[in-house]
Amino acid sequence: MSNWLNFIASQLLWMAAVGGAARGLAWLGPLCLLLFAAVQLLPRFRARGDVGLMLLALPVGLVVDTTMAASGLLRYASPVPSAALAPVWILSLWMGFALTFNHSMSGIMRRPLLAIAFGALGGALSYWIASRTWGAVQFTDYCAAVLVPLAALWGAAMGLLSYATLRLARTPLPSSSGVPG
């Protein structure tokens, strides 16, 4: 899948998950993730580390969004499985987002400081858009009180995921003796 198609598919996933959650369709995000992943993980499109990044993005997203839910600063539409945890639809977004790290987002993810800045700004902005245009999340305090911790969590998450992207993309060096090493 070209980087442009990867980007477009990830944006369609975001709109389906956020729009679905806003309308009580928590299953729409995970369904669209399955479709996106089924294509992106085909051998001809998959990059080294894609599966590992998806699996890492799941607990990272769980921590970030459960922290925001537990703080009481955000309320999620369609809070499946529980209002105390990150909803399944947003976890599908984290996993789908990870499928862009070696593709349409590779220029950012291969530069950790840029990834941190992008996460802090872009992550917070995406929640603001989801709140204002779709109603998929609700800010329970004034905007800055929600966006500052959200930006900090997203910046930290993207720093970790950038490091993982770099580590998982590395290919092992061949050993001259034929012995792995």
UniProtKB/TrEMBL annotation:
Residue spans crossing the bilayer? 12-39, 51-74, 80-101, 113-130, 142-166
Q: Which UniProt keywords apply?
A: Membrane, Transmembrane, Transmembrane helix
Q: Does the keyword Magnesium apply?
A: no
Q: Does the keyword Membrane apply?
A: yes
Q: What is this protein called?
A: DUF2878 domain-containing protein
Annotated source species: Pseudoxanthomonas gei
